[in-house]
Amino acid sequence: MAVRYLVRRVLTLALVLVGTGLSAQNFRSNVLTVPVTVTVVDGNGRLITGLMQQDFEIFEDGTLQTVTTFTNERVAVSLGVLLDVSDSMRGQKISDAGMAVERFVGDLLRVEDEAFIGLFNHRPRLASAWTRPPSLLKNRLSAVQPTGGTAIYDAVTQSAEMFDRRTKPRAALVVISDGADTASDRTLQQARDAVVKRDAFVYAIAIDSPGVAASTRVNPAALRDLTGPTGGYTEVVHEASDLGPATQRIAEELNSQYTIGYTPARALDGSWRTIRVRVKGQPFFVRARQGYMAERGSFR
User: Is 186 in contact with 120 (CB distance < 8 Å)?
Assistant: First the structure.
C-alpha cells in the first residue's frame, strides 16, 4: 500500500525489522511511519551509494519532515514481472525475453526476496504466484506461445492487487513489452493509480524494434507516465537480446536503494500528500514515489 502502518508492539516490530535492516529502537509504539524507498543517481545516471541519514531531506506538501528511520542496507523486495506474450513477441523475441526474465528472478534476486510472474496479451494471467525463494521460478516460461493483442494497462491494474498480499517491505513491478496498448479496458490513469496506491516502484522495458507499424509500436511516453510517479523508470531497447542487460540494471538499482521513514505531523484526513526527497548540498537526482493518500482504509 501507499503507506504502511507500523502500529505494533515493540516485540512485534523487532521481529519484523530484523529482516529489513532497520532497528526496532528507531520506532515508537502507536506511531505512524511513512516509509519511502529512494534511488539516488548522479548526472550520468550512475547509482550513488554510501549516503547517510543526515545527507537526506524529505518534504511532505512542501514542509520539511524529521527522518525517523533510515537504512542504506539492502531491504528485501517483493517483485513482480509482467511479460508481453502478444502475437508480436513470436520467435526469437519471446525466447530472449523468457531467458532474461528467468535469469532476473532466478539469479539476480536474493533468497530473502519473493517474486511472481504475470503474462499478458489481450488478457492478463498469472503464470506463478508469490514464490520464495525466487530461484524456484526458473523454467516456468519455456512453453509460452505468443498470440493475441496487447493489454498492458489491464495487466498492471490486475497485478497491482498482488502487492496487497506481499510479505516484504519493498515492492517493485517490471513490465516488458514490444507494443502499444491495443486491448485494455482500463486506462493509463487507472493503472497508474493502482500501483501508486500500493507503493510499488514500476520499471518498464520497451522493445522498440525497427519496422513496426506506428499503430502498434511501443509507446515509451505512455510507459514513462506509468513509471515516473512511482519512482521507477522506462528504458527503451531495440532488440530483445538487450533485455538481459536492462534487467541487470534494475537489479543493481534494487540493490542500491535507501529506505527512509518519517512521522508526519498532521493526522490522517483523506488527502493526497506530496513527497519530495533530496540530498543536501549535492547535485544528485533522487527518485521516489511522489506522494500517498492519507487514508486509514488504504493501509496494509
Answer: no
